[in-house]
Amino acid sequence: MKVSAQGFTGLHMLLVTSAFFAVVIAVNVTMAVYASSSWSGLVVENTYVASQEFNRNAAAMKAMSASGIEGDLSIKGREIRYDIHDKGGSPAIVDDLVLNFKRPVGDHEDFHLTLGKTGEGRFEAEHVVAEGDWIVEIISRKDGVVVMHEAKRFDTAEFGQ
């Protein structure tokens, strides 16, 4: 009985090539899904400078967070309200408050708002916030000194917009 050894045929090559590209495509699709469903990053003018400042900015934010001063942002229609308070829940003594609204990707819809003080620890303004994801940078000052500087990411759907 004679056994015929065919060896590596064109069909084998087709299967190996197909398997290789199937793996490549599966990895690319997986990475695309993860990229589109995770944090999209920020737009900065100079990525090198931003990377050099990251640790310093993170330490400053950690120190401000330890102070216990917190704020609550609310958006209802055109009304934007920010209430700022200390650890005990009492209104924080702040002179002015600025909100910088930024889209996570792109800067064509970014805007800045200076909120008017309506009471101790309460600031309000009117502005339309377009639907979708936003990052708002909040800077509050007392006598020109930054009391609190924080950034929050939110979706307008969280406010029932």
UniProtKB/TrEMBL annotation:
Does the record bear Membrane in its keywords? yes
Query: Keyword annotations for this protein?
Result: Membrane, Transmembrane, Transmembrane helix
**Membrane-crossing residue ranges in chain numbering:** 12-35
What's one Pfam family here? FixH
Name of this chain's protein: Cation transporter
